[in-house]
Structures are given as C-alpha cells and as structure tokens.
Design a protein that fits this description.
CATH superfamily of one domain: Succinate dehydrogenase/fumarate reductase flavoprotein, catalytic domain
Distance between the termini: 32 Å
Oligomer: single chain
CATH topology of one domain: Flavocytochrome C3, Chain A, domain 1
Bound molecules: flavin-adenine dinucleotide
Amino acid sequence: MQNSLISLRDVPHFDDTADVLVIGYGIAGVCAALEARRAGGDVLVVERASAGGGASALSSGLFYLGGGTAVQKACGFDDSPDDMYRFMIASMGSENADLVRRYCDENVSHFDWLESQGVPFERTCYEGKAVFLLGTEGLLSTGNEKLWPYREIARPAPRGHQATGEGESPGNVAMAALTTRCEDEGVRISCDSQVTALIADDTGKICGVRLRREGKTLHYEAGTGVVIASGGFAMNPDMVRENIPVLPDTAEPLGSPWNDGCGIRLGLSAGAATNAMEGVIATASIYPPGQLIKGIIVNKFGKRFVAEDSYHGRTAAFISEQPEQRAYLIVDEEIFAYPEIESARHQLVDGYENIEEMEAGLDIPAGALSRTLRQYNVAARKGEDPLFYKHPDWLKPLENGPYAAFDISFNRSFYLFMTLGGLEVDSDARVLDKKGRPIPGLCAAGACTAHIPKSGKSYASGMSLGPGSYFGRVAGMTLMSQ
Ligand SMILES: Cc1cc2nc3c(=O)[nH]c(=O)nc-3n(C[C@H](O)[C@H](O)[C@H](O)COP(=O)(O)OP(=O)(O)OC[C@H]3O[C@@H](n4cnc5c(N)ncnc54)[C@H](O)[C@@H]3O)c2cc1C
C-alpha cells in the first residue's frame, strides 16, 4: 500500500477534474463536500468502500454539542458557550484553545445546521448513566462534566446529542440524511476508489490525487484543494503497535475496515505534522447499571486510583496505567448487579463473606483492601470522598456483605478502542507542516486529525462526530474561500 506524494510533472494526464476533492465519505467528508458545494464548487468525493458511511454510519450517533442548543433548552438545561469552553479547556487542555473557542462559539448554529440538513434530534433527555442509548432520547450526559474538579470550574450540562434512531447505530440516520443532501445538491461521488497519493505542483500546493479504481490507476485534479477525511488508524495493527504500546493484544479496534491511517500517511508524505498519535479511547464500561458506580475500583494493591463516576473512557485510561493493568470493581450486597455491556465481558471473580477473604481471593496484600474500604466508608457516611471527590450522588458506604469482585483489568476484560491522534490542523482545518505553517491546498477533518481530547482521560462520547462534522464544514469553506 503506497501513500506518497507525487509531482504534477509526473502525472501523464488528469482523468477527472473538480474544484474540491474530498477523500472519504464519512461524517467529516460529507460535511466538507456539502459546504464546498454550497460555496459554488464542483466537488468530487472519492470513497474507497462501495458506499459512503464509514465508521460514522456504524456509530451511536452522539454529537458532543452545547452552549444552549434547542434540545438543551427544551429539556431545561441552561448551557452557555463559555461554560462549554471552560469545561473543555479544563478537561482536555489548552493546546488547541483557538479551535475549542471556535467550536464552542459556533455550536448552537452548528446544531441548527445539522437539524436543517435533516438529522433528527428528539427534545427529550435520558437522565440515567449509559454509554449509548437504545431508545430515542435526544440528550444524554456523555462526559466528565460532573466530575471533580470540572463541576467547580464550569456549570455541568448534558451535551451528548443523539440523532434519533432505534438500535445501536443511529449514526446511519445522520449519515443517510447528509449523503442524501450531497447527492441532491450535485456533489459527485466516486466509490470503490482508493486514494494512494497526493499530487503537488511546483509551488508545493496540493492539486490532486492518484487513486486505484477497478484495477486502473487514475489521476484526479483538484483546482482548489483536497480535504483528507479518511478516518482514524485503529484498523492498522502496525500503526497501533508503533504508536499506542499501552494497548494489550486483547483490545479490539472499533471502526470501518478502511480506518487504516491512510489519510495520516498521505498527510505525512506532504510534510504534515501529527499530534497525539499515542492517544486512545478504550472502553469496557462498568455501567450501566448506574448503581455499580457506587462500588469502588482498586488496583492489585487494593488502592483506589480513579473517581468511579468518571466517564468510562477515563476510567479505562487510568486502569491501563495500573501495575500489570489489573483492576477490580468491588461491590456489596446492596448494589450488586452484573455490568450490562456484554462486549466488556467483566468476569465476576467471586463472592466473599468478608473483605479479608476477598484480599486472599484476589491476591491483594493482606490488610490493604480492608484499609481502603474502612477509609472510604468513614468518608462516604458523611457524603464525602476526600481522595477523588466522587460526586455525593454516587457515594454510599460499602458495608453490607457479602461482597463481590469483578475483574475489569485492561488485559483481561475486553476493551474496544478508537484512535485519537492524527494530522495537526488549525482552526480553519488547514493541515499544518512541522513548522506550524499551512500546507497549501490541503485541509483535513475528522478522525484522521488529532482530536481535541488527546487522551481517553478527557474524551466524551460525541467528541468525534461533533468536531468531525463541524470542522468538516470548515474545511469545505476554507478551500472555497482561497
Ligand atoms: C460502533 C461505533 C460507535 C461510535 N459511536 C460514536 C458516537 O456516538 N459519537 C462519536 O462522536 N463517535 C462515535 N464513534 C467514533 C466515530 O464514529 C468516528 O470517529 C467518526 O465517525 C469518524 O468520522 P470520519 O468522517 O473521520 O471517518 P469515517 O466515518 O470512518 O469515514 C472515513 C471514510 O474514508 C474512507 N477511506 C479511507 N481511506 C480511504 C482512501 N485511501 N481513499 C478513499 N477513501 C478512503 C473510508 O472507507 C470511510 O468511508 C463510534 C465508532 C464506532 C465504530
């Protein structure tokens, strides 16, 4: 598989010409294409699969949006762009502050835009703790907004906006609406077409792509520029091994088969910088049911290391850093339940009459877990957690034996993962080189770019589709304004 940069001088002739060429027909590509088309461009989307959709169509359809969207308002939540910005910067870091500012300031109008394209969002809120919704509620808390210290920095609000659709993949409802718009408005689509190289002119401007289609090598010209929107690299085992050594062999990638990092390698061939390539969101959530959050999570030394009410991706990231990546969820009789996410396969190790027996059963040093539990219970009785500030809603002393332990170790349970690293872009979705300068004629959006959250510790569900759709639009507009 070649992903190289070729010179315009080496192109024998162009087989097709457009103003804007978009590589990939997932959420970022479809939004880029729509905006470029509406700005008057002749737009050609080149898609490797036999149909569009990508990982976006397989997804749960959660968009991380806020600042006071129509759904938030209808459900009685008073969010603001400033609260959203403060939360995102506090939890995700200030490295891309200008990108985050733009995203938060324009979120309400981006929500309206998505809806006006036919992406449906019900005006209802799911109040419980869930990873994805099987119902049709339009709003859900999907991140760490209520976690300490973030709840003291910014007013928490639910920001997971789920496109309305039954089952596990409402993402296909959103993609169907957006691809229909594209096709109705004259965006041209070339499926079964795998881009293998970017083409640069003598000034270094990206002016086309080389691709393979039906066994032939073709060259397509892009008069204005190219948008890379080809997804992440979870499906490329070599890239994953090289960049994300923390992942055990048992971890399974989430995505479409073509999320193999090809867009990142295309960008690299043109001199692009990458960022957060080690970033990963892994998940094997302990909830639902929410009552399990009232348990404690300890490592092989019987010590707590994370607030149990964290977003599941944050919990997973902390588990991955524990000695031997081992972790247990400890519950008492009052809150006992089996974790409902079947794919996680968290094994019940055993039930124990008392904590001393559990220490022996789990091979935790004698006295260590008893000490942890004693301290936790003393504080929990007062509604406090001086170690990790777990929210009082989830605090209760664990004193009703028998007790049970679930093995939630990173390398024993079944963690699914997506990559967060990729091409470095600015707030206009322009791909940057290693000196921070935009590469002429080249934009990128979606999972082939470095996500705003660069680690599972700060990810929130919807942080791919939300920014992917928004910066996809920005990419289309940027190229057409040049
Ligand atoms: C089961 C599941 C649930 C998820 N749920 C959510 C969620 O609820 N919210 C959220 O924010 N994120 C979710 N995600 C993650 C999210 O779906 C992806 O991060 C996001 O869809 C990426 O969008 P994209 O446009 O960048 O890439 P994709 O949607 O993957 O689109 C990229 C397209 O590029 C094509 N392509 C690749 N290489 C080439 C090439 N060389 N030439 C031409 N075409 C190429 C691919 O075939 C693909 O169609 C979920 C993912 C999965 C798998």
